[in-house]
Amino acid sequence: xxxxxxxxxxxxxxxxxxxxxxxxxxxxxxxxxxxxxxxxxxxxxxxxxxxxxxxxxxxxxxxxxxxxxxxxxxxxxxxxxxxxxxxxxxxxxxxxxxxxxxxxxxxxxxxxxxxxxxxxxxxxxxxxxxxxxxxxxxxxxxxxxxxxxxxxxxxxxxxxxxxxxxxxxxxxxxxxxxxxxxxxxxxxxxxxxxxxxxxxxxxxxxxxxxxxxxxxxxxxxxxxxxxxxxxx
Length: 232
Description:
Elements: H1 2-27, H2 34-51, E1 53-58, E2 69-73, H3 80-87, E3 93-97, H4 106-112, E4 116-118, H5 123-138, E5 143-145, H6 162-170, E6 173-179, H7 182-185, E7 196-202, H8 216-229
Parallel strand pairs: 1-7, 2-5, 2-6, 3-4, 3-5
Antiparallel strand pairs: 6-7
């Protein structure tokens, strides 16, 4: 009956996304940050509970809401975003593919909440988006970036430069995160999750102020090494 449970979880996933988006849209006129964040975190935790997914979080002491930063995580599964929203006790915002903004309710909600769209096919638009993301973080809203740019089939894909340019230009710390087994619980392009424990490893901050544009490749390698270290 495992397939039946996973099918139910997939349907619950879609329904919960729409309900969560509507609640966030209703909350924004009252509070643009705190109340939408509350509903977003409640959505993430409820969805995981429905799917039977428990989080084992290591390194929560590296999360400091008072210190602006960029969170960077590996990306393997559809479930990664609700996992990170549920795991991080901050007013998290994220960089998303511009095409997602056209999805009814969901696109409206993420735009209204101050998420940052990025068009990777247009470099000038992408740079404008990165500047907006920097402003979000400086205003106190941490931003989540998936440096791989898309979900990996296996292992960790090569990192894109954008998030690191953002960190260097604004002297923002990077907090690397490793999601250890999300693809085993929810396949890469599926909404059909299965019960289990998902390990979230939050690593110590990497201070971008210790790097420069000329050493950007080293910054990328250092962040990648930390993320990969918990995968082995």
